[in-house]
Amino acid sequence: MTSDSGRERILDVATRLFAALGYDGTSTRLIAEAAGLNIATVAYHVGGKRDLYLAVMERAHQAERAALETAVADLRRDAPPGGAGGAALLGLVDRYVDFCAANPAIPALWMHRWLSDAADVAHLESLYVRPLMDLVVDAVRDVVDDGVDVEYAVWTVIWATHGFARGGVLDTDGRRRGMDDAAELARFRAHLHRLVASALGLPGDAR
Question: Mind listing where the DNA-binding region sits, in residue ranges (predicted)?
């Protein structure tokens, strides 16, 4: 095993465990055992538990940033300014939903932080979340009419998507259905389109 492949293997396992159990509920020993390694090997490749968590969150951020930068670039290319870019804005929403569906560990990691997990690692929101929020909010603000609370609209998409990714909805039998259920994902997407169209004052045909 090369050093790079060993590190990636550990980070993959750590991501899965931090997403499932949270930082506070995961130990370095648990990560090592799940990776089939000893603690000394984990420490050699990545460091201690805090180092592991920071590496996991950085890797998650890099993936999310790459996806959003591409999506925002496409929005700026496709949407005319002044409120006429409804379809492109809903396309941006779809790109975010698709990213979370393809990377369910990432919304799970942030949901744990919303519940005060890893409270001693307090700088990640300002380091990672705020710049991405500014990126998206600035791009959307250039497209919609003045007077729309764009920041709250963007937060609403995040809250709803992370909540659905993590908790889903209950069917008539009390079973949870989420992003791995194509029908429920389509239903959630349609609902989010209506919500965003209303919040941003998009024309009816954009929905």
Answer: 27-46
Average model confidence (pLDDT) across the chain = 92
In the chain, what are the domain boundaries? 56-206
- The answer to whether 164 touches 179, Cβ cutoff 8 Å, is yes
Q: Strand runs (DSSP E) across the chain, as ranges?
A: 169-170, 176-177
Alpha-carbon gap, residue 136 to 184, rounded angstroms: 26
H helices present in the chain, as ranges: 3-21, 28-35, 39-45, 49-78, 86-102, 105-114, 124, 130-141, 150-167, 182-200
Give me the pLDDT at residue 118, please: 94
Q: Given this model, what pLDDT does residue 204 score?
A: 59
d(CA 62, CA 68): 10
146-162 pLDDT tens trace:
889 999 999 999 999 99
How much of the chain exceeds pLDDT 70, in percent?
Answer: 94
Provide the 8-state DSSP code for 80.
P
| CA–CA separation, 139 and 117 (whole Å) | 31
Q: Residue 81 — left, alpha, or beta (φ > 0 → left; ψ -120 to 50 → alpha)?
A: beta
* Cα 106 to chain centroid, rounded: 5
Decide which of 1.25.40, 3.90.1200, 2.40.160, 1.10.357 is the CATH code for 56-206: 1.10.357
Is the Cβ–Cβ distance between 185 and 90 less than 8 Å?
Answer: no
Residue keyed to tokens 């990377």: 103
pLDDT at 1 over 50: no
